[in-house]
Write a structure and sequence with these properties.
Strand order of the largest sheet: 1-7-6-5-4-2-3
Radius of gyration: 21 Å
Order of helices and strands: HHEHEHEHEHEHEEHHHEHEHEEHHEH
Largest sheet: 7 strands, mixed
Bound molecules: pyridoxal-5'-phosphate
Shape: globular
Oligomer: single chain
Number of helices: 15
Number of strands: 12
Structural class: alpha/beta
Length: about 400
């Protein structure tokens, strides 16, 4: 088991943090504990999850489970946070955090560009509960400063933001948000702790969809919140116990295994994405490529300062988006035309601007103009996987130029 006093590197932590040999069997790999209930040594005590403390024995898997607990410790360790709570999906984590922290009359300031599920949850469900919602361009600190209100309780950032890869300067925005008496959440799904550790830069909470890079293989849904221990033990009682979005131990076990290779996979994802981004940028049918590792990214300087790895996500624009999307769906041989991201397989899908605006973002005219400056009428979102980059470029090329 790692010595808590030693400053191990990220690869050592990704392999070992949170895990220790099972005391009963001396098993080296983490045990998969599927039991939903745990035998109590003594009768009595309270029947309510509200009586739990962080070091209570395991009682019921919705309240806590040994395999899930190991994953939570690994996540907190890699993000340099005090604690983590895992959920069944990234959306369950996002919903839990928002419902736990916000009350009627509070104002939530959300990134104008964010994961579609979060954008819709906030604008539809939370607005119905009497929570004030507004959106700002989190890549523009002046827009953030203008949008904070006396009752702002929470600011929701996502960096890089899905799907156009705008960045939030976490240190600068955390400072603005704290001076306004609010807290900052960063959805760091695209960055992973290998690229950026938001808590070190002043964020109060980090949210992940573990379904993406952290699991890394496209075979397990999961989500997590990382933050201060005392805040998260309250959040666990209020949300995993009462809202019930508990992570399956089997998925926790798959995600633990995926996380062991996270630093190696992220290095390969970034290497391959840089090759695909350069290829697309020089392609005659491609109008624009957005990738934080390219000098042409509008925030390239911030990307270099805030991201130790540029991750595997990029977006590109062509003149014939909808027709090309059809061709991609039919002709691509290596890429899968599919939603989701962060897997070892390369994935691509087309996101039409009108559809995103109507269904998810519903921006005002000014923010829509900002969005269109990046995305035009639509963009291809690419999650560059771990295949040979030359094969990925050739696959895109044969579908871009069919003759
Ligand atoms: C996928 C995703 C989510 C939602 O996660 P699920 O595990 O699919 O529920 C949230 N934020 C971002 C940035 C995502 O990519």
């Amino acid at each position: 088991m790692l010595n808590q006093k030693k400053p191990y590197g990220m690869q050592t932590r990704a392999v070992h943090a949170g895990e220790s040999p099972d005391p009963a069997t001396r098993a080296s790999a983490p045990n998969l504990v599927m039991s939903t209930t745990f035998v109590l040594d003594e009768a009595g005590g309270s029947f309510s999850g509200l009586s739990l403390t962080d070091d209570s024995p395991f009682v019921y898997t919705r309240w806590g489970n040994p395999t899930v607990r190991q994953l939570e410790h690994k996540l907190a360790n890699l993000e340099n946070g005090e604690a983590a709570v895992a959920f069944s999906t990234g959306m369950a984590a996002a919903a839990a955090l928002l419902l736990h922290l916000l009350a009627p009359g509070d104002h939530l300031l959300v990134s104008d560009v964010a994961y579609a599920g979060v954008a819709e949850l906030v604008r539809d469900t939370l607005a119905k509960l009497g929570i004030q919602i507004s959106a700002a361009d989190l890549s523009d600190p002046e827009d953030v400063a203008r949008s904070l209100r006396p009752n702002t309780r929470l600011v929701w950032a996502e960096t890089p933001a899905n799907p156009i890869l705008k960045l939030t300067d976490i240190r600068l925005v955390a400072d603005l948000v704290h001076r306004a008496g609010a807290e900052l959440v960063v959805d760091s799904t695209f960055a992973t702790p290998i690229a950026t550790r938001p808590i070190e830069l002043g964020a109060d909470y980090v949210v992940h969809s573990l379904t993406k890079y952290l699991g890394g293989h496209g075979d397990a849904l999961g989500g997590a919140i990382i933050g201060r221990a005392e805040r998260l033990s309250k959040l666990r009682l209020d949300t995993s116990i009462h809202l019930g979005g508990a992570l399956s131990p089997f998925n926790a076990w798959l995600i633990l295994r995926g996380m062991a290779t996270l630093p190696l996979r992220m290095a390969a994802h970034a290497h391959n994405a840089a090759a695909v981004a350069r290829f697309l940028e020089s392609h005659r049918r491609v109008k624009r490529v957005v990738y934080p590792g390219l000098a042409s990214h509008p925030q390239a300087e911030l990307a270099r300062r805030q991201m130790a790895n540029f991750s595997g996500m990029l977006a590109f624009q062509t003149d014939d988006g909808p027709q090309l999307a059809q061709r991609f769906a039919q002709r691509l041989e290596v890429f899968h035309y599919a939603v989701s991201l962060g897997h070892h397989r390369s994935l691509i899908c087309y996101l039409a601007t009108d559809d995103l605006q109507k269904n998810s973002f519903r921006m005002d005219d000014e923010h829509q103009a900002r969005y269109r400056a990046y995305a035009g009428d639509g963009i291809f979102r690419v999650s560059v996987g771990l295949e040979d980059p030359a094969d990925l470029c050739a696959d895109l090329d044969q579908a871009l130029c069919p003759e």
